[in-house]
Specification:
seven-stranded mixed β-sheet, 7 helices, alpha/beta, 17% strand, 37% helix
Length: 229
């Protein structure tokens, strides 16, 4: 049986105009933020189903977020740390380091808030892979060329990401190269689609019927019937 891991959720407060801006148009900033809020809450639920603890590395104004009360309730009792560092790669490395400081000796499994279809079962499977002999890291490719999950047996190994360009079509490959160059033995997790566009939101919502995310996307389709996969 896999031992406990620290699941790190890297998140941005779902404030209108600050999140999911590529959904606009057709979405309004408020509706885009509602979709982001739903995705974050579903992700936190999934993280709660993984053996161990959850650490949320958060940036942005929680009080101004869509669904602020629900977010506050979801974060209650969780360790929340501020994102720190210049650039996304630095913030990712810092989040792993902060999680290690809070829960020494545990591996870390980091996800964002763009893959609400990542279930507790899928995350737990990633944790299981990380516990296998001869595995130092788990990396989940994303359809856009990035990645959606990073598991590390040694959280401080996230320092290898410094210098890796983020949010590009080569980020996944460059991250894999950087991890291997640091001497890590990497296995790949199931690829998933990051939600950035309206079409991607509709496609992912179809995978998680009944979820908060699916309900938020249904509202988008109701207001913007031209949206399709």
């Amino acid at each position: 049986m896999t031992g406990p891991v620290t699941t790190v959720v890297l998140a941005k407060a779902p404030v209108p105009g600050r999140v999911k801006t590529r959904l606009c148009p057709p979405a309004t900033p408020e509706l885009a933020a509602a979709i982001a809020s739903a995705a974050l809450l579903d992700t936190l639920d999934a993280a709660a189903g993984v053996a161990g603890d959850t650490v949320v590395a958060l940036t942005g104004d929680r009080a101004a977020a869509v669904g602020a009360a629900d977010l506050a309730a979801a974060l209650d009792g969780l360790a929340v740390v501020a994102q720190r560092g210049e650039g996304l790669a630095a913030r990712i490395a810092a989040a792993h380091a902060d999680a290690a400081a809070l829960h020494p000796g545990r591996p870390t499994l980091q996800v964002g808030m763009d893959t609400p279809q990542a279930t507790a079962e899928l995350l737990s499977h990633c944790a299981d892979r990380l516990a296998e002999p001869g595995v130092d890291a788990v990396l989940g490719p994303a359809a856009d060329g990035g990645w959606w999950v990073l598991g590390l047996r040694d959280p401080l190994a996230a320092a290898a990401l410094h210098g890796v360009p983020m949010s590009t079509a080569e980020t996944g490959d460059r991250t894999l190269d950087a991890l291997r160059a640091a001497g890590l033995r990497v296995v790949l997790a199931e690829p998933l689609t990051d939600v950035d566009t309206a079409a991607e939101a509709v496609a992912v919502a179809a995978q998680v019927p009944g979820s908060r995310f699916a309900r938020a996307v249904a509202e988008l389709r109701l207001r913007c019937p031209e949206v399709s996969v």
